[in-house]
Structures are given as C-alpha cells and as structure tokens.
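does this look right to u?? pyridoxal-5'-phosphate version
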Amino acid sequence: MTGQELEYIAEAHANGMLAGDGPFTKRCHAWLEARTGANKALLTHSCTAALEMAAILLDIRPGDEVIMPSYTFVSTANAFVLRGGVPVFVDIRPDTLNIDETLIEAAITPRTRAIVPVHYAGVACEMDTIMDIAQRHGLMVIEDAAQGIMSTYKGWPLGSIGHIGCLSFHETKNIISGEGGALLINDPALVQRAEIIREKGTNRSQFFRGQVDKYTWCDVGSSYLPGEVIAAFLWAQFADAERITSERLTIWNRYHSLFAHLESAGSIQRPVISQNCQHNAHMYYLLFPDLSSRTAMLKQLKASGINAVFHYVPLHTSPAGLRLGRAHGLMTTTDSMSDRLIRLPLWVGLTAEQQFMIVNAVSAYSHIM
Ligand SMILES: *Cc1c(COP(=O)(O)O)cnc(C)c1O
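got this back:
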C-alpha cells in the first residue's frame, strides 16, 4: 500500500459516481497512455479480461491457432480457447525463460492468427524478432505484459510494442488494485471496437463523448470495465509507481549480489536480464539442479518460516492444455524450469535483515544438497 489508497477511495465516494469510466478511471487511462505511449489504454477487471477482449478484437474463430509459451499462467491460453482458438505451445529460452523466438516460425501453419509473447518476471521477450516474424506472416501480436508494467525493451514500455498489450494489477503484481488490469491498444484501427466490446457491445463511450445522440447495441461484447473504487485505489499506486519500482529493484539487486557466490559454486542459477531490457524487479527466482533438490529446498525454507513457492505447471502437461492445445516440438526447457524454479519473497518493505536470513537459509541447505 502507498498510504493514499483510502483517501482516493473516499474521494471517489464523495464524487458520487461509482460506476466505471469516472474521473479516476480517466486519470488512470491518461497515465497509462502517457507512460506507455499506447494509442489507447482501457482499464479492465483483470489481465484475464484484457486478454479475452484481445481475442474478441482479433475475431479468433474455432480452429484458429495462437502461438504462445507453455510456461505461463492459464489465462494466456484460456482467453483464446474461449473463442475456440487452439493454443500452440512453443518452448522457452533457458536464460530469460521467455518464449524462444527462434522456434516460433516453425510452429506457424495456415491456421495461425497470432503470437502471444509473455514477458516472464517483467523481463522483455525478443520483441524485434517476434514483430518481424509477425509482419512477414501477417500475424497479430498480443503482449501478455501482466508482469511487465514499468519494464522496457530497447526503451519501449512492455505492452506498447505489439498490436495489443495486456497488463495486470492483481495483488501479486508490482502495481495493484486487488483485482485489475488494462488493455493497451497500439493499433489505432482497433480502438473503436475495443471501446464497444468493453461496454457490453454498445457505443456508450461515443455517447458519453457526445459523438452520437443515443447509444445502442453494435457488436458482441461484455462488461469489462472496473468501477471507480478500484480505479481510485489504482490511482494511488500509479502516483507512486516510480518509488515502488526503485524499491523493488534495490531488493532484487541485493538478492542478486548475495547469491553470486552460490552461482559461482555451481549450486544454483540466478535470473538473467537481457541487455535490451530494463526490468521492473517483478520477481526474484533461483534455479536448482533438479526436482529433488528443489523439493528439499522448499521444505527447508518452509521449516525456516520462509514463504517460497514454485510455478508454473506447464500448460502442455495440464489436463485442459492436453485437451485444448498442442505442443509444437520438444518442451525440454519448459519441463526443466518448471521442476527447478523457486520464487523468493519480494515485496516493498522486505528488509535487508530478512533478505540476509533468506540468503543464509538457502546457502545453508545448498551446501548439504
Ligand atoms: C497474473 C498473470 C495473468 C492474469 O492476470 P489477472 O489480472 O490475475 O487476470 C496473466 N498472465 C500472466 C503471465 C500473469 O502473470
């Protein structure tokens, strides 16, 4: 929390306008557009909702294929599956754990419609290569930038590079509103329809701007806009986004230097940030040699009172992923990372002493392994 959330919520209450697209939502939209350079930013209930809107905007139809990593959260795939799309999973890079851009082209078929790069841990995918592939094959690019706010690729904010970007403000992310998200529309041709899809398929947004004298049902859509209380909370977070990011980076960098010796000793691998990326310190993770050492480490950390976790169950091995998607090629790196990764605690307010304790606990058990 930044300390301003309740004040802004009280202001939203006093404004007397609690539905969506009131003064706080407008401020949040303007901030996101200024910050990312997106043609249009629209708050949503979640990144999941933004991804679902993207699938509708692209007119994904049954049998259309969408290329994405398997090493991601379920919403990346689910949003397209809801329209009948088929997720085609491609393996990840062993350094950033992002989709391996060199494997994308071979996964393209006549049914391919889009590529969904996921910026894992707020570290950018190789977007130049991905945009080039998309352009040559006439594909759309939807960035799953759920973890990517305040990160950049070659100076470009994540979510502003593809045709569409999706952000999350879920409480597990860097900038939060409990549940929350945003759709960034970079392709101007998609803006008007995005507003309609978000407002239950009506042109209500144009009506409020005085562009039409009544509003009516124009297209498919749903209710994707959050109320003003959520936007007021989010505004407090936006106002402090620079400080939140720099404090997270301090914590991330401290972990990174404290774990250097364990990496030199060959016990663990630390995260890799590519030269092209300024990251947002969304996550600090370590890679252990194998599943058994990872399991033993998690047990020891838990016994020391440290809440460390693993993720993801690769989508290509999950019950729904097996039924609704398919893997293109071997998923060796995805399977390996899923067995070996541990996320360490990282939040604004985590003290240096707490970090020393965590590093000591990991070091102590690494020597036994
Ligand atoms: C958190 C997350 C989502 C979902 O975000 P919500 O706002 O909770 O819907 C989607 N994709 C990735 C990669 C995420 O980390």
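DSSP finds 14 helices and 13 strands in the chain. idk if thats expected tbh
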